[in-house]
Amino acid sequence: MGKSLRVAYGEALIKLGKENEKVVVLDADLAHATQTAMFQAEYPDRHFNLGIAEADMVCAAVGFAHTGFIPFASTFALFGAGHAYEQIRNSVCYTNCNVKFGFSHSGLSVGEDGGSHQSIEDIALMRVLPHMTILVPCDPAETEKAVFAAAKIDGPVYIRVARPVCEDITTADTPFIPGKANVMKEGSDVCLIACGLMVPVALKAAEELESQGISTAVVNMHTIKPIDEDVILKMNENCKAIVTVEEHSIIGGLGSAVSEVLAGHNGAKFARVGIQDKFGKSGKPDQLFEAYGLTAENVAATAKGLL
Questions:
Q1: Is the pLDDT of residue 189 over 80?
Q2: Of the residues 54, 144, 246, 247, which is catalytic?
Q3: Residue 277 region, left (φ>0) first, then alpha (ψ -120 to 50), else beta?
Q4: pTM
Q5: Average pLDDT over the chain, rounded to whole?
Q6: C-alpha–C-alpha distance, residues 110 and 163, integer Å
Q7: Above 80 in pLDDT, residue 221?
Q8: Among this protein's residues, is 142 annotated catalytic?
Q9: Calpha distance 2→162 (Å, rounded)
Q10: Mind spelling out the 3-state secondary structure of 30-67?
């Protein structure tokens, strides 16, 4: 049975907290939604609810970091990346402060909460900030690895956590090195570069393309910043086309990051599958993915169109 990435996040915090007593967790009155309530139950003296005050939560996390703790601050992606942006910029990133952000309910997959709560620009907001590392795990196993990796990084880290239940497509033995993408499948005609919940979509699209005789590589770009330039340039040389796939605006996210690496390099044709400069709307996640083209069929069609 699969589990939600937010559940995996909460469970990983408990494991990390057991190993490292310097880990503290902060939340902005959403501990049961972000699943940090699990950490609260296990370590009540190391969990702090700052109430509906995201900016205060970030500033309190800065205080913990400056006194030697490793704070993980959690809320919804829209509230954290949006409402507390100035504090993340000036109090955390400007000083290269050792604060970790685990923001859940990211992307269209928040579903029925609608466009007001669907954070489709959070990666772009975090990516533009100096010193920030951005991790976008694709499944529960990778979410746990992202939490442990974040704790080892000296500086700000954003972990993008999704709401839906999903199956593991990686294993405990799958490497997770920040800044080093995982090639899930080799291929020579087209390369699909995906992150987060779109990695299984890319793998499904690859199956469809392979069935039509199109050799397809799939890259899990679990780290958006620092981006793995080496794997992007290698795929640019080896393949005829590259398609990025993300549950985020095509502006400022994975697609933008890959295109910035490719700029000035001749080679593969390039396209971005993602949210096409629109806001989200209310609906079940699967319905929204269909409506916004975040499907294996659309990814495959986009790749074929390039070829």
A1: yes
A2: 54
A3: left
A4: 0.96
A5: 96
A6: 6
A7: yes
A8: no
A9: 13
A10: CHHHHCCHHHHHHCHHHEEECCCCHHHHHHHHHHHHHC
